[in-house]
Amino acid sequence: MLRCFSLLLICALVLCWSCHASQQHVCLVMLTNPPVVHLFDNSLSERTHIYLPSQFSPIEYAAYLVSTHDTLLASTFSSGTYKKLYSYTHLVNGFSAFLTAQQADILYQKEEVVLVERDTKLSIQTTYTPSYLGLPGGAWQEEGGAINAGEGIVIGILDTGIDPTHPSFSANTLKPYPKPDRFQGSCEVAPEFPEGSCNKKLVGAQHFAKAAIASGEFNATFDFASPFDGDGHGTHTASTAAGNNGVEVIVDGLSFGFASGMAPRAHIAVYKALYRGVGGFIADVVAAIEQAVKDKVDILSLSIGPNGPPPGIATYFNIFDMTMLSANKAGVFVVQAAGNAGPSHQSILSFSPWICSVAASVHDRTYPNTLILGNNKTVEGIGLASGTPGNNMHNLILASDALKGDGSTLPDANDCQDPSLFKVDMVQGKVIICSYTIDYIFGGESVNKVVSAVQNLSAVGMVMVVTADFEGELTIPLIPFPIPAIIIPTTEGTKTLLDYYNGASNDTATVRITGSAKAKFGHEAPKVAKFSSRGPDPQNDDFRAADVLKPNIMAPGHMIWAGWSSVGIDSSAYQGQKFAMISGTSMATPHIAGIAALIMKKNPQLSPAALASALATTAFTVDEHGEPLLAQNPSNDTSIELGPATPFDFGGGAVNATATLDPGLVFDAGYEDYVKFLCTIPGASNVVQNATGVTCADPSSPSVAATDLNLPSITIANLTSLRIVPRVVTSIAVAPETYKVTIVEPRGVLIAIKPMEFTIASNSTQELSVTITPAESDGKPSFGHFLLSGSNGHRAHVPISIVAQSS
């Protein structure tokens, strides 16, 4: 019976590989003894299955664990029949190895083995956003300006690496960088990552590729066995979190302003475990997380996630999420992308309550580009480009009308991929119309080839029009062009242009492109991006749904300018550029990592849970007019193009970067609280005991509910009768404050809170009792909140998400 599982299955399940029993794959194995971070901490009161010679130091204990891994493998299998890749000792006790299905099954039978998982892949999921989020006049100002914002905080970026030559990571700034006090990481040296690549800004850089190499998918020619970024994604996320302030963004010779990370004075440590064309493997990612925590990073930014939710009794019992639980226990704030599987309900790809899961919003910056026709009509388009020279109109020509010969053998001459097919004299000095087909989206055709062709033909500019197979409006990447250019992204706009061209006589059709190098700002509230994954936590086979709100917070993730690797190909439109504009929850995540560094700088005493609370309770849920924030295709009705967002779309709301620094109250939780939460999951007690070393409460003891976890939200997926939910707030304000409670009840639910008013001193706690009673039951999610309003101006907003069911 085979028990080496696909990504994120727990050991209570049996899943057979669809492969021959003798074929080897990378497996991750978790063992019963605790890892270093659990054992050398006095906060745990009960542990089991521990053998520890009393004289061991943490380093000696880690070596002891490695020896047990080696002994287990050597005593179970013949030499040469397996290959160990990593030993994990700091955050989880286990190893990864290249094993056959039969070997995996044999290992699972061992008493000391808790989990066996087959390794699979994880996927990788700015100039203006600092101003949009109010940082220059708010959070930065409170820390003494951009020149101090986040200084001394180390953000670990787990991604595709970094381009150390990028000016966003230079230490040659107006104010010298100090050496971070706690950080203990190192900097690898390689031909493409030479000595001196690290500095006091980029303080560490390492790579992890053993599983990628073992898979046979790693290509050293372009994946680079070093921290160097061959993709672009890692450089982008690192510069978003903590890139230097005031770096000019120049793409194709056009200036798009000056870039800054959210915490421009924070330090960056890079842990490369993702590769272009490969993605990432859990074995490499767990090794990278372990190293980052051992190096004592303060924050860990993970713009990665699985391709779907794991089956099993809960989404939490897997080596990846358990590793992040241990990182949380070590005091590291872990931020993870919510996923790009939206807008479907329960599409979230970041699950655990000890992780801050980040949704993506659309902000209000646009780059309008307009085509003015000779008949005075206008057609709106996109594309980062300059306009045609001056205010003159220029003759227009359709590519297929400038072909050599009749072009009868060419299936689509308008694709403009080959300049040798056209008559130069017919195109020179004109604006040429080329087609933008589905093939550009899937890589079959290249925009760069079109640009080269237009330049070779001496055209003054180009218009790209979508073909009929798009069947209406298409979301096309905002592509930079080194020539005057515009893409018409709708079939309606294409028809307007071609009707004008076809209705004009020879050489009388003229146009002018206005250009789009200058941004326009709409001063609008953020909207949840269509692609952003939605909550709540997904259903599982044996567990109806977790009473945990996901995502937790929202940040800008659409059309984000940030640094780019000099050889990055993640977006072909930005090859060879120093900056790129791309979208995804991957882009939203480092915004939160950087803002977390600002909070940590001002409030170094906050635990990861308290820090997450500060982000969530201060977030915006309404715009400046008091209207609810909107979502593209909201999860409660994805058929609506734009409608009111809910906590399942944005968690606590859109991040309020300045308010997070002074939240007044926080909802705190620690490792033991998370273990108690795990113990509430039916059938999970043995897994909890083996994975954490903590014994769940005796069955005869008073029961607890998953909702008892002290989160800055309340989510009940199956409310059938009265439920009392406890919460505890802690004051981190400098002075006593009196708070009043106001309640907005979800539809069909009655809520009472005791007390409705209280005064709390600094560093003190206050218990709250929230009584929730179903009044109606339609089986659909309904949403409300309670608000704690303080006499000194602090406000804590707590979302409530309920699904009332018939009893």
TrEMBL record:
Residues covered by the Peptidase S8/S53 domain: 150-624
Q: Where is the Inhibitor I9 domain?
A: 66-124
Q: Which CDD domains match?
A: PA_subtilisin_like, Peptidases_S8_3
Instruction: Point out the signal peptide segment.
Output: 1-21
Pfam families xref list: fn3_6 (PF17766), Inhibitor_I9 (PF05922), Peptidase_S8 (PF00082)
Superkingdom, natural source: Eukaryota
Protease found in the keyword field: yes
Q: Which family does it belong to?
A: Belongs to the peptidase S8 family.
Q: What is this protein called?
A: Uncharacterized protein
Q: Identify the species of origin.
A: Adiantum capillus-veneris
Source taxonomy: Eukaryota, Viridiplantae, Streptophyta, Embryophyta, Tracheophyta
